[in-house]
Write a structure and sequence with these properties.
By secondary structure, this protein is an alpha/beta fold. It has one domain. The protein contains 3 helices and 3 strands, in the order βαβαβα. It has a 3-stranded parallel sheet, covered by helices on one side. Strand 1, helix 1 and strand 2 form a beta-alpha-beta unit. Helix 1 runs parallel beside helix 2. The radius of gyration is 12 Å and the shape is globular.
Length: about 80
Amino acid sequence: MPDVKGWLREGELILTTGYSVRHDPALLEDVIEQLAQANAAGLAIKPERFLTEIPKDVIAKSNDHHIPIIEIPANIPHIDSTR
């Protein structure tokens, strides 16, 4: 990520900490676009460690494309998210 295009499958939910976009969170807009094109299920993100917040433009784009963003709380371990 942020170039997930070749890895996406229809109906998939992408789980990320945002590490790869930490220096340019606006790249998440492109990720949302790629998720929409793949007819993916959504984006689950745990932003506290590498991002201060999910940018409002990213949320707007996800709403436009009907791609849900699930914000995972910092106290939830990744292993619990994947179960």
